[in-house]
């Protein structure tokens, strides 16, 4: 290890409190992209990032407006080496149900080894980890590799304007490889490289019955209750083998090879670990597949929200006029979200009874992606992780969706290496989201190694 | 017609504006019994009624506390004649969804021939009709019949404390017949006497999945989504013939006789009229029965509310930890709400998968009731209705539930005659509840005739 690298690591360790303080400042801004009431907070977050990138010595800082929330860009291009485009998103998920949080989602609080707050793990913590690594190196001298940052504000709503932004700025964003730290680790002692991501197709379905709410005594028995009709439609979307019944849903699904199945079987993603993490009584899912396969390599259909009629305290005997479900499908190669929309439409046309009216709204969509685990940059990341954890990383297919990975490949012709220092127990998208700080600090070390490795031949 | 009766009717007509003002004052108090925040409003309403009964000349006014909301009692017992116990409930249903009201639910407003506001039809309007009839008679001289008022504040939550109240006050409440004006008319030109009422068994079912909300990407596919499981359970509660599948649900249902079916077939409750009133695309229900039979003489199972996960604006990719449904069954003779609870429990034990946990909460229950259309008091009411509308009343089985009718029979040994001057289009239990004022004024006339008829041999 060069003196330069050792000094950088030592500097990083000396700044642990300052890095944490930066993360707490960033988490304090409620950048909920899906909620129009937080539009100003989105801009505040972008400005915070731009200022911070300027302070650590990044150049050409620019906040690019889009039709939605802005993109923050910065670069440092003085190395005689390859260029790494660091992707991040500074937006976060909504915080409901608020009363289940033990501390305010936007008043980040350290308890034990964790920092609690919305976005600590997904993914403001990962952005600050990358910035802190760059900061540590720049404090010692020039970067060993050219670096560009592209930090968007719309990942949690499906990045609706990022593809257009990339299409308009292909020269600006040109790089040899993208680093995407929005993936995570399987366990604190298990450095992880993600080579596959699921896609997403998200919908809202509304079922309409009577023109207005009705008295269930006077009218109960003669009209189809839309809440009941909605439940009947939802219930029919899976068969008794846990398979999704939308017509043609599995037609495009790339089958798992025997080799991949045996590799996935080596991951510590056992039924027991899933039960421990979820608190569910037993596992459930598509017949014929293991839990690791079900989350990583098979598509699903999930219900995110149900709303109809009277949901307050006490009882009200009403037949509701409307019932709503939010649902999404996680996709695997080579499914297409547009096709899943058509499949859901076809299911509804075939199964919705004439006794109700319905409306299907397409909310967001993105394809799944797969990358080659043997890319040079991936190997350099693997080496960095191994240096820090003293253990070879595992390779996994991730159940979550990062549509930007596929879009970057398509628009910028650029592969991504995926990592991240969040854990499955981080409660991302849920109350009490947290970040495991020892893992996060190791992650900063690993990124320092990665950037040095990228500068080596 | 005696001069006395004619003078009373004329007096009543002269007081049309004052009677309406009284009703508006009463409707202005938001007496939502199910909402603990309105506890003081319940007491205000009881006091308003006590004061008003005192003003018109009723005696022995008393507000009886119960373990819930109070009962208002008053009487006038100077006639050498039978005693009529007038039942009413001064509580109302909740008002959600509030944004669908065209005027405030508690700022009653006359538009066209209707008075809009929560409780105008169900049943503050009916209480004021009875009080206005008594008031009109007392202004001319003594009542032709003895009268007692029993006005409760918990009908919309299943009258949980009324049975105990009646048991404790059997002497106070002793009477020859009860008048219950909580039923309604089929159409403004069709005076209606109700001889059958459905019962009610109301539940809340909660389905629990993971210990907390989860990221649907990381965990989608390996655990049973509780919102999906709830929908599957709800969907299974009806078969494809619209029949309820709870085990033993129909065992106690009293079959319709051919004579009753042919009588019900004469009512103007056609599919067309139901579609016009509800705005539904087509009717729906239990195979083998007409719409009039489905609402009046057959039991049902209805969904009143669904709630799970993320229901706000935009999208959130969460697997919810819990899903909830409010549901109830309308019962016919000789079903028992306690048995329906056991049947629902049995259904859940048989059908709920091991992949979720569930909890069933019994909210309220009451048996169905039937009365003899040939009771003398019923015939005197029929004559009163015919005098005003110049048309023989129709006899119907009502889809709604008035459990007090069965309880009065059981506890006080007293039959009820049921009528009322609300219409199916009154939006009871729904936004924009209203009362058709011309029908209501005719109703006051009819009640004046009824009390005089009761005083005749």
List the helices and strands and how they pair.
Two copies of one chain form a homodimer.
Chain A: H1 3-14, H2 16-27, H3 39-56, E1 59-64, E2 71-76, E3 83-89, E4 109-111, E5 114-116, H4 120-140, E6 146-152, H5 162-168, H6 170-173, E7 177-180, E8 192-197, E9 199-208, E10 214-215, H7 216-219, H8 226-235, H9 258-265, H10 271-278, H11 291-296, E11 300-309, E12 318-319, E13 322-331, H12 337-351, E14 357-366, E15 369-370, H13 376-389, E16 394-398, H14 403-412, E17 416-418, E18 434-436, H15 437-455
Parallel strand pairs in A: 3-6, 3-7, 7-17, 8-16
Antiparallel strand pairs in A: 1-2, 2-6, 4-5, 5-18, 8-15, 9-13, 9-14, 10-12, 11-13
Helix pairs in contact in A: 1-4, 1-15, 2-4, 4-15, 5-14, 13-15
Structural overview:
The first copy, chain A, has about 450 residues and is an alpha+beta fold. Helices cover about 35% and strands about 20% of the residues of chain A. Chain A has 15 helices and 18 strands. The first copy, chain A, has helices spanning about 5-15, 15-25, 40-55, 120-140, 160-170, 170-175, 215-220, 225-235, 260-265, 270-280, 290-295, 335-350, 375-390, 405-410, 435-455, and strands at about 60-65, 70-75, 85-90, 110, 115, 145-150, 175-180, 190-195, 200-210, 215, 300-310, 320, 320-330, 355-365, 370, 395-400, 415-420, 435. In chain A, strands 1-2-6-3-7-17 form a 6-stranded mixed beta sheet, sandwiched between helices. The first copy, chain A, has a 4-stranded antiparallel beta sheet with strand order 11-13-9-14. In chain A, helix 1 (about 5-15) packs antiparallel against helix 15, helix 4 crosses helix 15 and helix 5 (about 160-170) runs parallel beside helix 14. The longest helix of chain A is centred in the N-terminal third of the chain and has 21 residues, at about 120-140. The first copy, chain A, starts with a helix and ends with a helix. The mean pLDDT of chain A is about 95. At the A-B interface, strand 9, strand 10, helix 7, helix 8 and helix 10 of A face strand 9, strand 10, helix 7, helix 8 and helix 10 of B. Strand 11 of chain A pairs antiparallel with strand 11 of chain B.
């Amino acid at each position: 290890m060069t003196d330069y690298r050792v000094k950088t690591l030592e500097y990083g360790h000396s700044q642990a409190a300052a890095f944490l303080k930066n993360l707490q400042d960033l988490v304090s801004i409620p950048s909920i992209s899906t909620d129009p009431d937080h539009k100003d907070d989105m801009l505040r977050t972008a400005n915070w990032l731009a200022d911070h990138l300027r302070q650590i010595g990044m150049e050409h800082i620019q906040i690019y407006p889009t039709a939605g929330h802005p993109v923050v860009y910065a670069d440092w291009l003085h190395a005689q080496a390859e260029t790494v485009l660091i992707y991040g998103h500074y937006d976060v998920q909504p915080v409901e149900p608020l009363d289940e949080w033990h501390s305010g989602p936007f008043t980040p609080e350290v308890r034990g080894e964790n920092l609690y707050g919305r976005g600590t793990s997904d993914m403001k913590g990962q952005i600050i980890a990358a910035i802190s690594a760059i900061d540590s190196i720049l404090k010692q001298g020039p970067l060993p590799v050219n670096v560009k940052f592209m930090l968007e504000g719309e990942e949690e709503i499906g990045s609706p304007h990022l593809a257009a932004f990339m299409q308009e700025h292909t020269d600006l964003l040109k790089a040899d490889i993208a680093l995407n730290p929005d993936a995570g680790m399987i366990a604190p002692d298990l450095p992880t490289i993600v080579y596959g991501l699921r896609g997403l197709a998200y919908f809202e379905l509304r079922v309409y019955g009577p023109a207005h709410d009705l008295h269930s005594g006077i009218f109960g028995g003669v009209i189809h209750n839309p809440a009941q009709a909605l439940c009947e439609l939802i219930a029919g979307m899976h068969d008794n083998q846990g398979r999704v019944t939308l017509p043609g849903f599995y037609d495009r699904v790339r089958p798992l090879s025997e080799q991949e199945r045996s590799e996935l079987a080596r991951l510590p993603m056992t039924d027991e670990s899933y039960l421990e993490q979820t608190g569910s009584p037993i596992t459930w899912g598509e017949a014929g597949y293991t839990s690791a396969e079900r989350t990583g390599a098979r598509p699903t259909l999930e219900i995110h929200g149900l709303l109809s009629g009277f949901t307050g305290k006490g009882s009200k005997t009403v037949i509701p006029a409307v019932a709503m479900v939010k649902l999404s499908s996680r996709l695997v190669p080579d499914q297409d979200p547009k096709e899943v929309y058509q499949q859901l439409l076809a299911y509804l046309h075939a199964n919705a009874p004439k006794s109700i009216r319905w409306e299907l709204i397409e909310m967001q969509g993105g394809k799944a992606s797969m990358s080659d685990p043997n890319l040079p940059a991936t190997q350099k990341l693997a080496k960095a992780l191994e240096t820090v954890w003293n253990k070879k990383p595992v390779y996994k297919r991730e159940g979550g969706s990062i549509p930007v990975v596929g879009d970057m490949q398509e628009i910028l012709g650029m592969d991504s290496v995926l990592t991240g220092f969040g854990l499955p127990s981080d409660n991302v998208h849920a109350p009490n989201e947290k970040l495991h700080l020892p893992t996060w600090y190791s992650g900063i070390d690993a990124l320092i190694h990665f950037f040095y490795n990228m500068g080596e031949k």
